[in-house]
Amino acid sequence: DIVDYEKQDNGPEGMEPDGIIESNWNQITDSFDEMNLREALLRGIYAYGFEKPSAIQQRAIIPCIKGYDVIAQAQSGTGKTATFAISILQQIDVELKATQALVLAPTRELAQQIQKVVLALGDYMGASCYAWIQRCDHTLYF
């Protein structure tokens, strides 16, 4: 595992925003250019409006691309969606017309937001992304 979270008394392990984070990954990449990303992906990143990677992006994109198991936690609006979208887009083969990544989201709105980010970042690559929304009408009895 890349990140181990110290056990907190007031919530599940790893879910305390102000908790202590211990990591065995200490590389911080200060720019998207230093990440050795595909040129078409870089164009999409800059066209999307990113200039410099956020803290979560500086720390999580490279280990994701390298295939490590990553657990990352950050506040809203810090670029988590773009972090995993960039990591996925760097690894896929756009010539292969098959499912190569699956992102699960708990709500329709989040699934659609993720789709928009992936399509925008992958625009110059010709990447495709579909949001499949599963309606759940099941009643569970215990």
UniProtKB/TrEMBL annotation:
PROSITE patterns: HELICASE_ATP_BIND_1, Q_MOTIF
Domain Helicase ATP-binding: 61-142
Every DEAD-box RNA helicase Q domain range: 30-58
Residue ranges the record marks as coiled coil: none
Domain notes: The Q motif is unique to and characteristic of the DEAD box family of RNA helicases and controls ATP binding and hydrolysis.
Family, as annotated: Belongs to the DEAD box helicase family.
Protein name in UniProt: ATP-dependent RNA helicase
Annotated source species: Gouania willdenowi (Blunt-snouted clingfish)
